[in-house]
Amino acid sequence: MNLSDLKWTDVAAMDRNTPVVFPVAALEQHGHHLPLFTDSMLLSEVLRRAVGRVRGPVLVSPLTWLGNSEHHLDFPGTLSATPRVYLDLINGLAENFLVHGFRRIIFLNGHGGNDVPGKQALFEVRQRHRKRGDLLLLFATYWHLAPQAKDCFPGLKQHEMGHACEWETSMILRLSPQLVGSITDIKPVEFGTAFEPASRAWITQERTVPGHIGFPNLASEAKGEALFEAFAEASGRFLQRVVDWDGVSWNG
Ligand SMILES: [Zn+2]
Predict the structure, then answer these.
(1) Per the CB 3.0–4.6 Å rule, which of 6, 15, 137, 212 could disulfide with 10?
(2) What is the CA angle 122-200-38, rounded to 5?
(3) CATH number corresponding to 3-147+228-244
(4) 19 C-alpha to center of ligand 1: Å?
(5) What's the pLDDT at 252?
(6) Is 148 a residue whose pLDDT tops 80?
(7) CA 43–ligand 1 middle distance (angstroms)
(8) Taking Cα atoms as reference points, which of 155, 175, 174, 151 lies closest to residue 215?
(9) 31 CA distance to ligand 1 middle (Å)
(10) Digit-coded pLDDT (tens) for 149-200
């Protein structure tokens, strides 16, 4: 069910255990060859395919495309909510549906920069409602749900998500090939090694001049279809666990 299609009376009549899904992504630079809306387009397609696999009702909010993309602001066109605004945005969306009486609030994320503030925001919501034992507040990034995606197509070069990379470029080629610039002459940008296990504060410009990280030159539409299916399968299984949750258990 799409929230945008319903009347308020439809929502009022719904079972309050219905999972409410907020897709959150970004509008930010994706190298010389992919559109700014890449993360939002990809998440929408993953979620569309995932919801089709779920047995039971799921209420899906329209996409929140404004993300935390401060680290990309050196590249023109990028739009970003500052991190503290983003925390309040996610807090507010969750609180809206708590006011409406719903208990299972799920954020499905399609942009790496949203991961830390998104989890922090739900941490804050939970502390405010710490006496409630019936809440399920989850934040998940779609590629983290699918570690098996690296094996979904023979010969994938990358074993993890990069940026405007083999994986993202392949999926946009599958979805909207007319929006993809020439990739044959693009030079790969290695992932590099951060100061692990520390978490280094970085800006994108420090890691890449053109804007991508990874191997977009190796992208193909067939890889994109395989990746979409792998991510949709994993996201669908995740949403099914939320639908089937018994309201009590930790492992659900
Ligand atoms: Zn992206």
Answers:
(1) 6
(2) 65
(3) 3.40.50.10310
(4) 26
(5) 65
(6) yes
(7) 10
(8) 155
(9) 10
(10) 999 999 999 999 999 999 999 999 999 999 999 999 999 999 998 888 998 9
